[in-house]
Amino acid sequence: MKVIAAYLLAVLGGNTCPSAADIKDILGSVGAEADDDGIKLLLSEVEGKDITEVIAAGREKLASVPAGGGGAVAVAAAPSGGGAAAPAAESKKEEKVEEKEESDDDMGFSLFD
Fold this sequence. Notes:
Blueprint: H1 2-12, H2 20-29, H3 36-46, H4 51-63, H5 70-77, H6 85-104
Helix pairs in contact: 1-2
């Protein structure tokens, strides 16, 4: 990611075709190590391409990826109505009863239980 970020910073700075040395300089300026293999791979993938078109194509691909899988479960559970709320209310009542029972004894110091 840092190699891609350095490449994009160079492009934003006005360098339409950053070289490996440009990317290394940017990474070195912030104390990050430059991964030569990652730089070569990135430059080979974007060679001869407009970066705005590459980003646009990536956004289209990401738009088709499903995200947040937990949402469907919550939506499916919502139409059940008050059925789920009733057991929750019962368990709260049970907890209150248990707490009351505990407070009635002699704080657990009974020697003959």
